[in-house]
C-alpha cells in the first residue's frame, strides 16, 4: 500500500512523550477470521505493536469487547458478525521472596540468572555524535579551562550606605565534610576561581548533599545579601518568552557549565566575597553561587545574544533555548549560537544539553509545536506534596501553584482559602475547607491542559465572568485556550453591583492581556446580557465611564451568551494521564456549545 503525506498529527503516549507523524496508509487490508476488512492508518514509530485500531474503526464495526473472555465481536454490514479471540494461555509473572529464591537455588530445583537492565535512551553521548555540535567540541569541555576572560560586564556588589564588614566564625563540620572542604578548596585554587584573602569580611561555609550523593560547597552569604543594594536589571516574564515560540517545531537547549563562575567580579568588590574555613581565609575572583545579584549574569547574556533574541534564541540566566520552524533553519540557528559561545569563551555542560528535539522541557514547562504544558516532573512533585503543617509550607505550595496559574481556570477562587491561611491575623488550623482547596489545586495542576501559543496576527476571543468571590476570564484563539486569568475581589469591590463586576472582569482581561489584544480585533463573550449595550448606554456612573474609556482603546466587541462563561473552557479536552498504550481524546458533549457560539470546535482525532 502506498504511503501518502498528510498534515502533521501529534499523538500522545502514555509516558507523556509525543510522536508527530505526517504519513498515512489508505485502505490497509486487515485479515481477521478469514475476512478482509480495511482501514486508514497513520504511520507511527511503535516497538511493541504492529497496529493499534482506533475508536473510529471499532465504532464503525460496532465492536463488542469482552475483556474477561478475551473476545472481540465485530458486526459487519448485512447482520454478519466476526468473533476473534486473544491469547488465553498467558502466564502472569510470579514474584517470590528472596528467602524462597535462596532456598530453591540451594536445593538445586531451579537455575538463577542475574539480569542487569540498562536504559539505552539515557546512555551518555558525546558532542561528536550530534550534528553541528560535533564542529564545536571545544565549547563542551569536561571542566572549565580556568578563570574567565575580561568581559563587557563585571559582577559588582554595592552596599547600602553605612554598611560595614561582617565576619562570622566557621561552622563546625564532620570529618567527611572537612575532607570534602579541603578537596574543593584545592580544586577552586587550581582553577583560579579563589585566592587567599586578608579581607575583614568572612562568611561561613556549609555543605548540601546533591541528588547523586556528592556534596556541594555553599557559602552562607545571607548577611552580605542583606547589606547589598539589589540589582534591578529586569528578568523576563516566563510567559512573554514562550510567546516567541509560535510555529517552532525543532528545539535545542544549552546549559552553561558553572555559568556564574564564567563572570569576573569587579576588583574592588572581591574582598566582600571572602569566606572563612578551618583551612584558611579565601575570596572569590569569579561570581560565586549564593549572592543575590544574579541578574547581572542575565545582563551579560542579553548583551551577547541581543541580535538573536526573539528571533530564534531565548535566554534565561544561564539557560539558552534555540527554536526553529524547520530542520534546515535549526542547523543555521544552532551554528550561530555555538559560534557565539566559542567567540565569547563561554562553555556549556554537554550532559545537561539537549539537541534536535520536538519536545523540550524548559523553565518548568514542556514545549512542543502543539503548545505549552506543565512539566510532568513538576506534576509528580505536586502529586506527592504532603499536607502543609505551617503557613510557610502553605506559601511554598501556593508558590508553585501560582507559577502555573495561567493553566488553572479560576485560580484565585480555588486558592482563596490557602491565601487567607497565610495571613498573620489567621491562626493556623488545617480544616476540611483548606484541605479541599489544597486537593483541588493539586487536581487542576495534575490535569492541566495544553495551552496554544498565540499568533499575534490573528484575532482573539475572551470569555469573562464575575462572582462575589472574584473575577475570571479565558483567552482563546481559534477555539483553543491561550491562558486563564483570575483574581480575588478587593474589599471595596465586594460592594459593586453585578453590572459593574461583570464590566470589571472585562477590564481585567483587557489589562492583563494588553500585549496580545492591543492593536488587533477581539470578541468578548459575557453571560451578563446588558453588558453588550455598554457602548450605547446613555447613563453611566463615573466608574463605568472611566472603564469605558479604557475599553474603547481596543478594537473589541462585547457579545452575550447564556450560561456561565467558563462552560466553554470546561468543554476543552484536558490532557489525560493513565496506563493506556495511547492517550485517547474524549469528545465532549459540550462540543455542540462551541458550534452554537460559532467557535471552531476541536474534534477528537482518530488514533491509529
Automatic annotation (TrEMBL):
Entries under Pfam families matching the protein: RT_RNaseH (PF17917), RVP_2 (PF08284), RVT_1 (PF00078)
PROSITE patterns, per the entry: RT_POL
Domain Reverse transcriptase: residue ranges: 189-367
Keyword Protease: yes
InterPro entries: DNA/RNA_pol_sf, Peptidase_aspartic_dom_sf, Retrovirus_Pol_polyprotein, Rev_trsase/Diguanyl_cyclase, RT_dom, RT_RNaseH
GO terms under biological process: proteolysis
Main EC class the enzyme belongs to: transferase
Signal peptide segment: none
Organism superkingdom: Eukaryota
Record's keyword terms, sorted: Endonuclease, Hydrolase, Nuclease, Nucleotidyltransferase, Protease, RNA-directed DNA polymerase, Transferase
GO molecular function: endonuclease activity; peptidase activity; RNA-directed DNA polymerase activity
SUPFAM superfamilies in UniProt: DNA/RNA polymerases
EC number: 2.7.7.49
Protein name: RNA-directed DNA polymerase
Organism the protein comes from: Striga hermonthica (Purple witchweed)
Taxonomic lineage: Eukaryota, Viridiplantae, Streptophyta, Embryophyta, Tracheophyta
Amino acid at each position: 500500500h502506498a504511503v501518502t503525506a498528510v498534515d502533521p498529527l501529534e499523538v500522545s503516549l502514555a509516558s507523556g512523550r509525543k510522536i508527530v507523524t505526517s504519513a498515512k496508509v489508505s485502505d490497509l487490508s486487515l485479515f481477521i477470521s478469514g475476512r478482509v476488512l480495511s482501514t486508514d492508518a497513520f504511520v507511527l514509530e511503535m516497538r511493541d505493536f504492529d497496529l493499534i485500531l482506533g475508536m473510529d474503526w471499532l465504532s464503525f464495526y460496532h465492536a463488542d469487547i469482552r475483556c474477561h473472555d478475551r473476545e472481540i465481536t465485530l458486526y459487519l454490514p448485512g447482520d454478519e458478525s466476526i468473533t476473534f479471540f486473544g491469547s488465553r494461555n498467558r502466564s502472569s509473572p510470579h514474584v517470590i521472596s528472596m528467602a524462597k529464591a535462596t532456598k530453591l537455588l540451594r536445593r538445586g530445583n531451579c537455575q538463577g540468572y542475574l539480569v542487569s537492565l540498562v536504559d539505552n535512551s539515557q546512555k551518555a553521548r558525546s558532542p561528536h555524535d550530534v550534528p553541528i555540535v560535533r564542529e564545536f567540541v571545544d565549547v563542551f569541555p569536561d571542566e572549565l579551562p580556568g578563570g574567565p576572560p575580561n568581559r563587557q560586564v563585571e559582577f559588582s556588589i554595592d552596599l547600602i550606605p553605612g554598611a560595614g564588614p561582617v565576619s562570622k566564625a566557621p561552622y563546625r563540620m564532620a570529618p567527611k565534610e572537612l575532607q570534602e572542604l579541603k578537596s574543593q578548596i584545592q580544586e577552586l585554587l587550581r582553577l583560579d576561581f579563589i585566592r587567599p584573602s586578608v579581607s575583614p569580611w568572612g562568611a561561613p561555609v556549609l555543605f548540601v548533599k546533591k541528588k547523586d550523593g556528592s556534596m556541594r560547597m555553599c557559602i552562607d552569604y545571607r548577611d552580605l545579601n542583606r547589606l547589598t543594594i539589589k540589582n534591578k536589571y529586569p528578568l523576563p516574564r516566563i510567559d512573554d518568552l514562550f510567546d516567541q515560540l509560535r510555529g517552532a517545531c525543532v528545539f535545542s537547549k544549552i546549559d552553561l557549565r558553572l555559568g556564574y563562575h564564567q563572570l569576573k567580579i569587579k576588583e574592588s568588590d572581591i574582598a566582600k566575597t571572602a569566606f572563612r574555613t578551618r583551612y584558611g581565609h579565601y575570596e572569590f575572583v569569579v561570581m560565586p553561587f549564593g549572592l543575590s545579584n544574579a541578574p547581572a549574569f542575565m545582563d551579560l547574556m542579553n548583551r551577547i545574544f541581543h541580535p538573536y533574541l526573539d528571533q530564534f534564541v531565548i535566554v534565561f540566566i544561564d539557560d539558552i533555548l534555540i527554536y526553529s520552524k524547520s530542520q534546515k533553519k535549526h542547523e543555521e540557528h544552532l551554528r550561530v549560537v555555538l559560534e557565539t559561545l566559542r567567540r565569547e569563551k563561554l562553555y556549556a555542560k554537554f550532559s545537561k544539553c539537549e539537541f534536535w528535539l520536538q519536545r523540550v522541557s524548559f523553565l518548568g514547562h514542556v514545549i512542543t509545536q502543539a503548545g505549552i504544558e506543565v512539566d510532568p516532573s513538576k506534576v509528580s512533585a505536586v502529586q506527592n506534596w504532603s499536607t502543609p503543617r505551617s503557613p510557610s509550607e502553605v506559601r511554598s505550595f501556593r508558590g508553585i501553584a501560582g507559577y502555573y496559574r495561567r493553566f488553572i481556570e479560576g485560580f484565585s477562587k480555588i486558592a482563596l482559602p490557602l491565601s487567607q491561611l497565610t495571613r498573620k491575623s489567621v491562626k493556623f488550623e488545617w480544616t476540611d475547607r483548606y484541605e479541599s482547596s489544597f486537593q483541588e489545586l493539586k487536581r487542576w495542576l495534575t490535569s492541566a491542559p495544553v495551552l496554544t501559543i498565540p499568533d499575534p496576527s490573528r484575532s482573539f476571543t475572551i470569555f469573562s465572568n464575575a462572582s462575589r468571590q472574584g473575577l475570571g476570564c479565558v483567552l482563546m484563539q481559534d477555539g483553543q485556550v491561550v491562558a486563564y486569568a483570575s483574581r480575588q475581589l478587593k474589599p471595596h469591590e465586594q460592594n459593586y453591583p453585578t453590572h459593574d463586576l461583570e464590566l470589571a472582569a472585562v477590564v481585567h482581561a483587557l489589562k492583563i492581556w494588553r500585549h496580545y489584544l492591543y492593536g488587533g480585533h477581539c470578541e468578548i463573550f459575557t453571560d451578563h446580557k446588558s453588558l453588550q449595550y455598554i457602548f450605547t448606554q446613555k447613563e453611566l456612573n463615573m466608574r463605568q465611564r472611566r472603564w469605558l474609556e479604557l475599553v474603547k482603546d481596543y478594537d473589541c466587541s462585547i457579545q452575550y451568551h447564556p450560561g456561565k462563561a467558563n462552560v466553554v473552557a470546561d468543554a476543552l479536552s484536558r490532557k489525560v494521564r493513565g496506563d493506556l498504550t495511547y492517550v485517547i481524546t474524549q469528545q465532549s458533549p459540550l462540543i455542540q456549545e462551541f458550534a452554537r457560539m460559532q467557535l471552531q470546535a476541536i474534534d477528537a482525532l482518530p488514533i491509529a
